[in-house]
Every structure is written in structure tokens, then in C-alpha cells.
């Protein structure tokens, strides 16, 4: 059971990074469906830099920068030039799949040394201490990021401005807020977070590079934001829940669950669909926190 819990913690971390970044972007009123592509580009950039330099921390920074660069393209095309957000995000995902596959060809099958976990003598030697305190630093960074986003959204003026832009960009503009600036920063943060999620996949979760290695995790991250009704705390719960479903395909048969492994591999995606259906049956739950202007472009002269 300890091995299962440890694997769930590791598997949830990419969801946390990508999901919390998308949550911030959507809170500003921007629907970015390019998370999958940003994660892939972040993953290949992180792996390439780590493989070339031997320093995983440089790779992690490269992954975040690559994700932010992809997000910058989205900002220019969709936030500044007012192209359709959904179409731009889908195009970004397709572009990310292609460019990551091309850039990653020289690294297929290669491996790197992942960042080491924390080591506290007498604490991380095994048991609960190892589970709680012996994870790699990125696990704690993801959790800290979720806590920081909650604090930002609920306890700061910057968070209030972000939510105002997402709910009514016209009113926010009338009050003197830079709607384009706030949305651009939110999307760039989302891109950097998605890049970190991709970097975690290629440097810690595997650690190796494989084409399309995100395997739909970017789409699950987008769905998690809706599942969490745009609340960071619920996003954390959802990330660990879906990570547990993901790990069932590896541990289920060892536990005597007599179902085909292919079915267990489908469980996370089936659970995503079921969760979204249940939420849609009670629209008031989602509308309570959903940004009113999500997906709606804004022009300052309107």
C-alpha cells in the first residue's frame, strides 16, 4: 500500500502543475485548451537540457520557460489579436505534439538521473515519514503553488483584480485595470506551470523521453478545473483522486482485481467523463464559481 500511495503522489504532481496554471488562466476569463501541447514542449525542453548539461534543475527551468513561450504565442494570437480562444488552444496543442516529436527524436530511449528526494535521517528511512517528507522537491513545489494561488485569489487585491477581469472585463477596464495585461500574465503563468508539469513527467515520473508521453494528461488537467469548480483546494483533491485511478492499472491486478488491464487504463478518462456529467446535472454548482466571461475576448474600445 505504501508503494501505491507513493506512486499516487508522483502521478498527481503533473496534474497539480498543469491544473493550477489552467485554473489561474480561466479565472482571468481565458480558456486555454493548449495545455497538452505546452506540457509536451515543456517535457522535451526539460529532458533535452538535462540530458545535455546533466543538471535537472536547469532542465526544470527550461521546461517552465518552454511552456511560457508556448503560452506567449497564445497571448499574442488570442488575447491581443482576439482570435478564437478554443481554436487557438487546439492549434497550440497540435503544434506542441508535432514540435515536441520532432525535437525529441534524438532523445528517444535515452534516460537521465532525476532530482533526488529529500533525505532526513531517521525520518525518511521508511513508512509514513518517507511518504510525507521523502518526496522530490517538485512535489512540495506543486503543493506550495496550489496554496499560493488560493491565497492570491482569496486574500489579495491582485487576486480580486484577476477575478474581476474574469467575471466582467468591461467593468474591470472601467475601473482602470489592464484587462489585456492581467490576462496575459495569467496565461503566461499557466504556460509555465504546464511546462513544469511536462518537465516532471520527463525528469521524474519516467524519467525518459517518449513521443506523446503526456498521454492526455493536459486534457484531464483542463477537466479537473471544471471538476474543482475553479477552486484550488478542490483541484488538489481531484488531482490525487484521478492519479489514484491512473495507478490502478499498475496495481489493480496485483490486488486481485480480475479485469483486463486495458479497462483499468481507461478508468481515469471514464472517471473524468462521469465527473463532468455529474457536475453538468447541477449547473448551479459550476456557475457559483465559474468566471462569467470565460472564453470571451475583450477589446478595450468596446
Brief sketch in words of this structure:
By secondary structure, the chain is mainly α. The chain has 13 helices and no strands.
Report on the architecture of this protein:
It is a single chain. Helices cover about 70% and strands about 0% of the residues. It has 13 helices and no strands. The chain has helices at about 1-25, 35-55, 55-80, 85-105, 125-135, 135-155, 155-165, 170-175, 180-205, 215-225, 230-250, 260-280, 285. Helix 6 packs across helix 7. The model has no long low-confidence stretch (mean pLDDT about 90).
Distance between the termini: 57 Å
The structure class reads mainly alpha
- What overall form do the CA principal axes indicate? globular
* Topology order in helix (H) and strand (E) letters: HHHHHHHHHHHHH
Percentage of helical residues? over 70%
| Overall radius of gyration | 19 Å
User: Count of helices?
Assistant: 13
Q: What is the mean predicted local confidence, pLDDT? A: 89
Unreliable segments of 5+ consecutive residues: none
The beta-strand count equals 0
The major β-sheet equals: none
Beta percentage is under 5%
Note the main attributes of this structure.
13 helices, 71% helix, globular, 302 residues
Blueprint of the fold:
Elements: H1 2-27, H2 35-53, H3 56-80, H4 85-103, H5 127-133, H6 137-155, H7 157-167, H8 169-174, H9 179-205, H10 217-227, H11 232-251, H12 261-280, H13 283-287
Helix pairs in contact: 1-6, 1-9, 1-10, 1-11, 2-3, 2-4, 2-9, 2-10, 3-4, 3-9, 6-7, 6-11, 7-9, 10-11, 10-12, 11-12
